[in-house]
Amino acid sequence: MNFSSKLLEDAVNEFSKLPGVGQKTALRLVLHLLNKEKEEVNLFGNTLIRLKAEIKNCNICRNISDHVICEICSSNKRDKETICVVEDTRDVMAIENTGQYFGVYHVLGGLISPMDGVGPADLFIDGLVDRVAAGGVKEIILALSPNMEGDTTLFYLYKRLKEFNVPITTIARGIAFGGELEYTDEITLGRSIITRVPYETAMMK
Ligand SMILES: [Zn+2]
After folding, report:
1. How far is the CA of 70 from the centre of ligand 1 (A)?
2. Ranges for the Toprim domain (predicted)?
């Protein structure tokens, strides 16, 4: 692509680094922004700068949050004895959207994937073990995507957590193999949380 301006080229290059955005789309977005009022473009840029500078991960569950402790962990309406373990913040949003879960979460920050070089030490697993070891937890729900990485992670977590004698359950496998939790519709996801089963039972099927 031949650009008439280095500034235009730089902006297009930045946009085309985003997932799913090719150079043509990037150019369209940049030209669109160029036609906006200066205040609007400033707001756009500043929102991104503030996002990166000010966002936090909750000290307890690692969910993305505006505060050191997220709203879910600090709410006295949530059941702190039930921890739902998920891959990332999108899963928290998906489960919250079902309106069927009232416990707290634990966000791993990924799944174990030897092929991608992601091992247990790269994830927030020790933090989960510490939470369970501290006591007061009555159930751990493993709500991970039903794919190979999800199953590997489930098995690893089960091995790490079973010594604490806290019931470990997993969401029903009504979701197609290889599907992603966040793309599952709310009704199916909500139902799979309600009909969760002990991990041992799920693995025998
Ligand atoms: Zn939290």
Report:
1. 4
2. 81-176
